[in-house]
Write a structure and sequence with these properties.
GO terms for molecular function: nucleotidyltransferase activity. This is MobA-like NTP transferase domain-containing protein. InterPro entries: MobA-like_NTP_Trfase, Nucleotide-diphossugar_trans. There is one protein chain. By secondary structure, this protein is an alpha/beta fold. The chain has one domain: Spore Coat Polysaccharide Biosynthesis Protein SpsA, Chain A, CATH 3.90.550. Helix content is 35%, strand content 24%. It is built from 7 helices and 9 strands. The strands form 2 sheets. The protein has a 7-stranded mixed beta sheet with strand order 5-4-1-6-8-7-9, sandwiched between helices. Strands 2-3 form a two-stranded antiparallel sheet.
């Protein structure tokens, strides 16, 4: 199964006031944590979607990237931009893993578990489960590519997951609920988990 990865790093960190992707945790920028895990997972191609702060982020990026020129319209635009570019470069892609750039506990193991769960369950969607929700990273098989490419607004792919409950499997990613949206989130991360 040809599995590509899209790292969604196109937001402008509006509530934080600076690029959260460059905040460090255990000596690494959050963007480095996710890109290194994505590359080490062995899935290919890996593409990062940039938007706000694209120039600063591109300087440290270790993957190919594309800029979502309409990043202000929301997460969906970054998904569409990334998947369109991946399919243009690799039309034989069987599935894609969408991940974000602000989950400091992301790892190769999480990405591989998504893949392995899909192989066993044969579900079209495999999402991460944490606290009382499911979310990123999430794997979509090719049967959902058209729906992903039709997304709009800031809802991301959650609507596709919610509309297909019988075709969704989940993996446990307990630390997935920790993401960075505000300075308080970041301070909490550095004080509690270092």
């Amino acid at each position: 199964m040809k599995t590509g990865m899209i790292i969604l790093a196109g937001g402008n960190s509006g509530r934080l006031g600076q690029p959260k992707q460059l905040l460090t945790y255990n000596g690494k920028a959050l963007l480095d944590i996710v890109t290194e895990a994505a590359i080490a997972s062995g899935f290919s191609p890996v593409l990062t979607v940039l938007g706000g702060y694209a120039d600063q982020l591109a300087e440290i990026l270790k993957t190919d990237f594309i800029i979502n020129s309409d990043w202000e319209s929301g997460l969906s635009g970054s998904i569409v931009t990334g998947l369109s570019a991946l399919l243009q470069s690799d039309p034989d892609l069987d599935q894609v893993i969408l991940t974000v750039s602000d989950q400091p506990f992301i790892s190769v193991a999480v990405f591989k578990e998504l893949f392995e769960n899909q192989q066993i369950s044969q579900k079209g969607i495999v999402a991460s489960r944490y606290t009382d929700t499911i979310g990123t990273p999430v794997l979509f098989t090719q049967k959902y590519f058209k729906q992903l490419l039709a997304l709009s607004g800031n809802r991301g792919a959650k609507a596709i997951i919610n509309n297909n409950p019988n075709d969704v499997a989940t993996i446990a990613f307990e630390m997935g609920h920790i993401d960075i949206d505000t300075m308080a989130d970041y301070i909490n991360l550095t004080e509690q988990y270092t």
